[in-house]
């Protein structure tokens, strides 16, 4: 456990980096998939040529997020047990629901009926994405309790994430597919994820710099 507390924020960065790179690395080996219009889960579709690599990579990325949880809770426990627990729940939900579940329960886009695997995948992804989305808001409250100026940065990042996520949500509506801007579903998903990654990266870098100062 001490190892996880010591290196947890490195694991958090590893989770973000591996998760972020997934579609772009695998996209090289799956040129038929249009990154601008296709959601990332299609890399794990039963007909995907990179299916196994995507499923394994998703589980590995999710494990990195889970391994970061002890360090995350330890960092904020003195500020608020409840908010620290919510922060852990948010990242844990994403790591398990949207990464590990994606790797274990893939989708079949050719099947008109949702299979059990598709149900678990979609429900897990929805819960995980919600945790991913609201994580910067939890950080805002944590740093507000600490009376840190950076709380405003997390609030700004949360508002940006919500704005882009709203566009991504609209792009998923069939009624809006006729509009060019909403046809780019894959683009909006990837952009939304980038704005979700930013507060996690900023937090990890801040905590690692803080630890470095304390050790010097």
UniProtKB/TrEMBL annotation:
Name of this protein: DUF998 domain-containing protein
InterPro entries assigned: DUF998
Keyword Cytoplasm: no
Transmembrane segments: 7-33, 53-76, 83-107, 119-142, 154-171, 187-205
Organism, as annotated: Enterococcus viikkiensis
Keywords of the record: Membrane, Transmembrane, Transmembrane helix
């Amino acid at each position: 456990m001490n190892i996880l507390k010591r290196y947890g924020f490195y694991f958090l960065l590893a989770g973000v980096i591996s998760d972020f790179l997934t579609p772009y690395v695998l996209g090289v080996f799956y040129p038929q998939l249009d990154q601008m219009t296709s959601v990332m889960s299609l890399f794990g579709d039963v007909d995907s040529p990179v299916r196994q690599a995507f499923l394994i990579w998703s589980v590995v990325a999710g494990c990195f997020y889970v391994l970061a949880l002890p360090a995350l809770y330890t960092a904020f426990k003195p500020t608020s047990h409840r908010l620290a627990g919510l922060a852990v729940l948010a990242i844990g939900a994403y790591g398990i629901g949207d990464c590990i579940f994606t790797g274990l329960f893939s989708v079949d886009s050719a099947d008109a009926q949702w299979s059990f695997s598709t149900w678990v995948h979609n429900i897990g992804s929805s819960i995980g994405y919600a945790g991913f989305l609201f994580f910067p808001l939890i950080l805002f409250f944590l740093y507000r309790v600490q009376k840190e100026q950076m709380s405003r940065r997390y609030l700004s990042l949360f508002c940006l994430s919500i704005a882009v996520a709203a566009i991504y949500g609209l792009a998923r509506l069939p009624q809006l597919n006729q509009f060019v801007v909403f046809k780019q579903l894959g683009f909006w998903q990837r952009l939304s994820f980038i704005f979700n990654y930013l507060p996690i990266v900023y937090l990890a870098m801040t905590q690692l710099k803080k630890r470095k100062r304390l050790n010097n």
